[in-house]
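Suppose you are handed a protein chain with no further information: no name, no annotation, nothing but its sequence. What can you learn? This example shows the usual starting point.
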Amino acid sequence: MTPTWIWYLNRATGIVALVLMTLTLVLGVVVQRQRRLPGLPRFGVVTLHRNVSLLSALLLVVHIVSAVIDSYVSISPLAVLLPFTSAWRPLPVGLGTLAVDLLVVIVVTSLLRGRIPVRLWRGIHWTSYALWPLAFVHGLTAGTDLGSGWALGIALACAGAAGVATALAWTGRDTNPADRAPAALAETTSALARGARVAVFRNR
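A reasonable first move is to predict its three-dimensional structure. Written in structure tokens, the prediction is:
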């Protein structure tokens, strides 16, 4: 049996990652609409957006690793990458896996953004709108933490904030609908890619 703190770590990182993903989404819309936050210059909003994105990605990694090593449930490393193959609650876990797979594809294409056609990059990033709902439904159905009480309140507040942010993103400043990328979540993944490049450069 794995230590009890692994179980708590898995639940805690899942909830906090959802909150940070929502905050990243909201900040992405602020960046897209070229707004400012009180006390921060415009570039400060971009920096905050990037740092929150990286922190949410880090928590997501911890959440996944702790889920795999937790002996209370049976989630294999394969189930982390291949949807609906988990022996434990295959549908809810599979939704989370789909979100992870989408995130990997979007981050990789963000890293290669200067080397692939813009239309291809934009088309792939349309799928980023599915990331947050998949993660949200996964959180509601994979465990019991978000089913009631204060955790459910946090989840519903995140859903409300994400809904408003998405609506604002779709009514953004671009006048040509064909040029509207899914800006909020695309900004999130682009920030992850930029942060990854910075981390690689610093470690050289």
